[in-house]
Amino acid sequence: MTWIRNPQVSAMLLLGAAVLGLVVANTALGPGLDAAKHWHLPFEVLGLDLSMAHWVTDGLLVIFFFVAAIELRYELTQGELASVRRAVVPTIAALGGVAAPAIIFLTIVPSELDRGWPIPIATDIAFALGVLALVGRRLPSRVRALLLALAIIDDLIGILVIAVFFTTSLDLLALAGAAVAVAAFWALGRAYSARRGSWPLRIAMVAVALVAWWLVATSGIHATIAGVALGAVLTPAPAESARVKLEPTVNGLVLPLFAFVAASVAIPQIPLGELSPVFWAILVALPVGKLIGISIAGAAAQAATRMPRAERLALPELLAVALLGGIGFTVSLLMNELAFRDAEEFLVEGTLGVLAGSLVAALIGATFTALLARRYPAVETEAIRVRDLEEQARRTDGV
């Protein structure tokens, strides 16, 4: 299953699933698919009454956030963000890439729709890195490093936005129970590190993780935060083991299924000019807002920190990162679902805006990056391949 870990494959699966969902939703099968998405089990599961679509967004997607949190912890402790000096530039660039799209969105939409401002702030790690791997293999490794670090910080900001702005009424007792379950998961992880390969410990960790997810889901906080908390506290040995085992499932099932469900919307039969401001705001904010915010903030951060010239990105390289950063997709679709869950019209147009904005960013970013990559010698490609293999071997050593 090593092929499914390839970022190019992951990006293609995501795009293919989204296109398939959009196509099916606009055929004779569309009404049946919509009914299936909104179908509820005839009984509650642990007190939860969720539609099939919500089992994907509130259930399966937790696995993606769990793996993302493991990646985030690794980068903060051992990777691209392990030191303050290395983290400053991508952090400032990410903040610029969040602020500019949000401002553009709020400028375009009327005040009653401003709850959708988080939709265009996201960068899809899998998709953006997949496009870069597809067309930018000759680029210096510092380009991938900045895009990866920026996307990870962007995800962290997105997680905080979900926790703060999309939390309904809080059940403090359930939240306290979830905290206890997360602490128990951490303790089991430490025990697993000492007794690696213990099946009773693995079963106990899965059981405690499910309890934590259920408690978070019933507490009023979005269930994906459970995956973030569990991935963040897991100690390195079991964390890397879990990432290696779950990555094929995330790339091959969780993300494509989510993309299929989220993108399966019927295109409204109205003239293009009559689409709501939500569609146009997202369409503009994703490619344009990310380009402006990341490039300006990134350039300013490099200058302000006096980054060594050998590590600094030239303006064309920074523009490539900024353009690819406009591919929102997965997290943007989730933000759209959370922002307009109770407004079907805006939910549909928001989804179309995310798909269109991400596609524009991907096409322009891929074209610009491919042209830029032609300026670099092919020898860099082999250096990057060797680096990636060494990094993978180091991370999986002892798993």
From TrEMBL:
Keywords noted in UniProt: Antiport, Cell membrane, Ion transport, Membrane, Sodium, Sodium transport, Transmembrane, Transmembrane helix, Transport
Keyword Oxidoreductase: no
Bilayer-spanning residue ranges: 52-70, 91-111, 117-135, 147-166, 172-192, 199-215, 221-239, 251-272, 278-301, 313-334, 354-373
Reactions the enzyme catalyzes: Na(+)(in) + 2 H(+)(out) = Na(+)(out) + 2 H(+)(in)
One Pfam family cited in the UniProt record for this chain: Na_H_antiport_1
UniProt membrane topology term: Multi-pass membrane protein
Cell compartment(s), UniProt: Cell inner membrane; Cell membrane
Function per UniProt: Na(+)/H(+) antiporter that extrudes sodium in exchange for external protons.
Family from the record: Belongs to the NhaA Na(+)/H(+) (TC 2.A.33) antiporter family.
The name this protein goes by in its record: Na(+)/H(+) antiporter NhaA
Lineage of source species: Bacteria, Bacillati, Actinomycetota, Actinomycetes, Micrococcales
GN (gene name): nhaA3
